[in-house]
Specification:
Layout: E1 7-15, E2 24-39, E3 42-49, H1 62-74, E4 80-87, H2 97-112, H3 119-130, H4 136-141, E5 144-150, E6 153-159, E7 165-172, H5 178-183, H6 191-210, H7 216-219, H8 226-229, H9 236-245, E8 250-253, E9 260-265, H10 270-283, E10 288-293, E11 301-303
Parallel strand pairs: 3-4
Antiparallel strand pairs: 1-2, 1-11, 2-4, 2-5, 5-6, 7-9, 7-10, 8-9
Bound molecules: L-homoserine (HSE).
L-homoserine binds at residues 15-16, 21-22, 94, 132, 134-135, 178, 181-182, 225, 255-256.
Length: 309
């Protein structure tokens, strides 16, 4: 197999950020890489890193599926396709690994086919496959994003998070599919719970825009999805409390979970927060990987062979 110089880097994402279910998301500095090149015949997919051995390497691979959609949309017919996925983002943990694969492959396929699609068109295609836009948008544009769907189209805005905002993620060593984590959600919510979340989303956006990080603890509370998902993540409430007691300014379920994320202002409390989250998960017999992360501000980038943009 030969390869090309086309490589796209896409960040992990933490969706929802507490109350912003399917609306808010933030890019994180953990990355997946997608390489794509045309070959004379057939399909050849290589997977390295996270998901090696478990990710489908045939025609149901999501990177291939979105590349096909891009080619069909612009009328490009490659004789064959090579795709290499080099993954740092753990799969099915609530860190946007599928959105990263889709965004990376859609961007790569767009370059391969002559760059005919706009950012909006690519986002529309990725969100349609994902079923929600809150991972896809920050994966593509970076930073913190607010995204809504209106009349079949996406409207989104990006904010730069405060420079001192950092986070600890506790990634349990088990997978939880988004499908399963969405299946436990109620079909209807109460007026009171909707008001509870609306107010907090407003406060959260204000806090992130103004750097008022002391508001995050209050503004990240949620009644729409986290309480229903708690039984799927043993120890979730205790880990949140432990992180906050150790100095975190806010805590949330990352996307559909099972990863939990605790936000900090600077890195002074990081060692205590990391230890507290790991210890508390251990009390509930959950082993996890602990990482400190920062927001990614760039989003997806097409790299040249030297690693430059
Ligand atoms: N907003 C989505 C959910 C994110 O919570 O189900 C999935 O990664």
């Amino acid at each position: 197999m030969c390869s090309s110089d086309l490589k796209v880097r896409v960040p992990a994402t933490t969706a929802n950020m507490g109350p912003g279910f399917d609306v808010l998301g933030m890019a994180l500095n953990i990355y997946n890489y997608v390489e794509m090149w045309e070959i004379s015949d057939g399909l050849e997919i290589i997977v390295d890193g996270e998901g090696k051995g478990s990710i489908d390497r045939g025609k149901n691979n999501i990177a291939y599926l979105i590349a096909r959609r891009v080619f069909d949309r612009v009328g490009h017919e490659p004789s064959g396709l090579g795709i290499r996925l080099v993954n740092e983002i753990p799969t099915a943990r609530g860190l946007g690994s599928s959105a990263a694969a889709l965004v990376g492959a859609a961007l790569a396929a767009n370059v391969v086919s002559g760059g005919q699609l706009t950012e909006e068109e690519i986002l529309g295609m990725v969100s349609e496959m994902e079923g929600h836009p809150d991972n896809a948008v920050p994966a593509l544009v970076g930073g913190v994003t607010i995204c809504i769907e209106d009349d079949g189209g996406l409207v989104y805005r990006k904010m730069a998070p405060p420079s001192e905002l950092q986070a600890v993620i506790a990634i349990p060593r088990y997978e939880l599919s988004t499908e399963k984590a969405r299946s436990v959600l109620p079909k209807r919510v109460s007026f009171g719970d909707a008001i509870f979340n609306m107010g907090r989303v407003g406060l959260l956006v204000h806090a992130l825009e103004r750097g008022d990080l002391d508001l995050l603890g209050l503004a990240m509370k949620d009644r729409l999805h986290q309480p229903h998902r708690m039984p799927l993540i043993p120890g979730m409430g205790d880990v949140f409390s432990a992180a906050l007691e150790a100095g975190a300014v806010g805590a949330a379920l990352s996307g559909a979970g099972p990863t939990l994320i605790a936000f900090t202002a600077g890195d002074g409390d990081m060692p205590n927060i990391k230890a507290a989250m790991e210890e508390k998960f251990k009390d509930h017999e959950i082993s996890c990987i602990i990482k400190d992360v920062r927001p990614d501000l760039q989003g997806a980038v097409v790299l040249d062979e030297n690693g430059g943009k």
